[in-house]
TrEMBL record:
CDD domains membership: AAA, HLD_clamp_RarA
Annotated coiled-coil segments of the chain: none
Taxonomic source organism: Nocardioides daeguensis
Assigned keywords, A-Z: ATP-binding, Nucleotide-binding
Pfam families given in the database record: AAA, AAA_assoc_2, MgsA_C
Family: Belongs to the AAA ATPase family. RarA/MGS1/WRNIP1 subfamily.
Tree of life domain: Bacteria
Protein name listed in UniProt: Replication-associated recombination protein A
Amino acid sequence: MDDEPQLFDTPGSSAAGFGPAASVGSLADATHSSAPLAVRMRPRTLEELVGQEQLRAPGSPLRQLVEGDQSLSLLLWGPPGTGKTTIASIISQQTGRRFVEVSAVSAGVKEVRSAIDAARRQLVATGEETVLFVDEVHRFSKAQQDALLPGVENRWVTLVAATTENPSFSVISPLLSRSLLLRLQSLTDDDIAAVLDLAVADERGLGGEVVLEEEARDHIVRLAGGDARRSLTYLEAAAGAARSKGVSTGSTTLVIDVATAETAADQAAVRYDRDGDQHYDVVSAFIKSVRGSDADAALHYLARMIEAGEDPRFIARRLMILASEDVGLADPTALTTAVAAAQTVQLIGMPEAQLTLAHATIALAVAPKSNAVTTAIFEAIGDVRAGKIGQVPPHLRDAHYAGAKTLGHGQGYVYSHDAPFGVAEQQYAPDVVLDAAYYRPTELGAEAAVKQRWERVRRIIRGK
């Protein structure tokens, strides 16, 4: 229940003049009866937060921040609908700080600096601290992220920045080093079910106005895909459909059954068993059918997932993983096909994307198979975890900075392009793994040619 696009203004706030890119107040301001169900049901305390047990545990950094009223900047990394905006709101409410939200989609450097300047003035004038929430911080440019640094360094604001992308690649190092990184996990089906049950019963939600049948609840849980906000959106739509039916039939009891949930979500419910095992079994069978080269079986399971309302992006991600895990260099085009399918799914959506998913599924199913890539990286990681981490050979070290040559860096390095066939006899690996042979290509598909070339190249490099 995070990443909400709504901005809530407090009349006469000191943030006036920020423009549309920033807002000030509390997310609690939006809990009026006409607000979306997902907003009304936003947890108010850590105890009400569903899932994320690792963040709510006693003594955890987040609990210390909230209960100890510390000023500490956070980077929240996790999938949509897992509670990033909610956590920012809880910090603001439970510590009595002012809440200011800046949109990374529309704000520029000017708006970021204005928000921080206003927070500093408020702190000096009244002693009131500010939680500055930046949604989708990965969309900020380097200059925009740089603009956040003064507020973080001087603790004029408690920065809470949310991202769905790996902060190591999307957030600048100075900001990353000054913030505590908290990773949020996808919500489980049980978590989503608990969110739905609470929304049905709670006065802030539907207040017991409707009865949610178990099969209908299971259907909404599947469609939500671990996104609490999405589940509440579906529930709200289903409740509206139930009201319409109740009005037309004169019924005093509003019931959300599977048919009503299907109508609201515009999806057909393929019957999975109540515990959800069938759901995971179908996904597993899909992957194993593609791995086993049975295109017909794979298409059957793909159709079941599509009809059950499975997130097409999830299916596309599984195909991308499988392309490297089970096909590898036996068909070098497999990963390209899977990535193109994932991009197409993002661009055109369903139902047209089902053709793209079928295209990629068949292509990967009929492709020759090799798990040599998988074996290679797992063995390499195993050696690293076992402590086999030697020094980088001196001739491979960076020799571009002042004083590097006096340390012997780069001396004796052979430029590969100057060697016959573009391959030089030279030590590349540290001594501790000098004889390691991680990549062992098969003779299946295109990897047979890769195997022949790799064996020749390896002999040249090793001088054997």
